[in-house]
Amino acid sequence: MKKLLLIFIILFHLTFYGQKESICRTPSYTNWTYMQQLINLNIANSSGFINQSDMHAKVKIYVHVIRRSNGTGGQTISSTHQAIDILRADFCPVNIFFDWDGEIDFIDNTNFFNSPSDLIFNVNNHNDGIDIYLFDDNAPAGGLANGVGISSEYYVSGSYWYYPYNSLITSHVISHEMGHVLSLWHTHHGTYYEGGDPSQCPELVDGTNSSVCGDYISDTPADPNIQFNVNQNCEWTLSGVDSNGDFYTPDTSNIMSYSSPDCMSYFSNQQGRWMLNALNTIPFLQNLSKIGYGAVDINSVDCGNNSSSSIDSIKKVKVFPNPTDNIITLTFNNASEIKEISIKDKFGKLIYHDFCNEKSTTINTETFQSGLYFIEIKDADKTFIQKIIIQP
Ligand SMILES: [Zn+2]
């Protein structure tokens, strides 16, 4: 079975990833039975699909560093810790925490070192946690999991191919690949054919099909596939319309987009909920994590060295109710910092603008036309974007 899967993956690579450099080499392969179960639970919004705020997960991870046979090269202890800190900080806001004992398994093998591939998954792999294999910054660039919600290992290797050529290991790509292991598709899923999903279709900008098309996640805006076309301000440099003629406004900050790794910064609330429910329902993921209910004891988890900026950050914004009709409430974990709040319509036109340094605020949307909007919240160094739907 494992061999068959491997052949499939190799074929897929040749046909699909032969074309161009890609940060993510994860094949679009999935266990459709499990994914369909998640999609259906999400659509039904049944009690079987638990809200992110009511649930948290502690996931065991193992960390491997690949070096040359003589022990040279590869990630240092400090860069390995830096990578895991980024992973932890990215997942903390969505109530997913990583349990790592701090041990690094050094795999000293020049053949593996020179040619990152999924063959590394056969080395020192565990059944009770997610195995993360980290290659050298000078190795060929990319990250790879076995598929979307397929099995519990992935690797990251090399450096981004645009200036200043930052390491992909100490970047949000480490979180992007973890997203695939925890069953997330790319935000542009459905825009070109990918295997393993018989019901794929592109998401519409107006969000009307967002729970049955695209990435099946309704608070991530329709994404036509950014394909790394972002400028230094993390703005998408191309433009395009969907089949309704509506202009795309993809979120270049989302970790599951094909944005620059320097721009990827967060998972949406619904992506968090999706991953938590995957951990709760998909058999191979159930073995790797401990699910807890209610609020987590913040002293019992590690959110990386950036914890103060990530836990208290604007990423902890709550926007509700959504959809809404006349009043939106925003709550923030971090009250002291001044935050700039903007609401734009689906064409990018500014509809509302204000500043807030309170713990919560409300916005009257009675005069807004019904439809899709994007609420953008900025603090000194981060931007949080969420799709909101105003009902008639
Ligand atoms: Zn990917």
Nutshell version of this structure?
The chain has 392 residues and is of the alpha/beta class. It has helices spanning 2-16, 32-44, 77-91, 110-114, 173-181, 269-281, 283-286, 307-311, and strands at residues 55-67, 96-99, 104-108, 130-134, 142-145, 153-157, 289-293, 318-320, 327-331, 339-345, 350-356, 360-364, 371-378, 383-390. The structure holds zinc ion.
Walk me through this protein's architecture.
This protein has helices spanning 2-16, 32-44, 77-91, 110-114, 173-181, 269-281, 283-286, 307-311; strands at residues 55-67, 96-99, 104-108, 130-134, 142-145, 153-157, 289-293, 318-320, 327-331, 339-345, 350-356, 360-364, 371-378, 383-390. It has 392 residues and is an alpha/beta fold. It has two domains: 22-311, 3-Layer(aba) Sandwich (Collagenase (Catalytic Domain)), CATH 3.40.390; 314-390, Immunoglobulin-like (Sandwich). Residues 1-20 and 306-315 have low confidence and may be disordered. Zinc ion binds at residues 24, 26, 176, 180, 186.
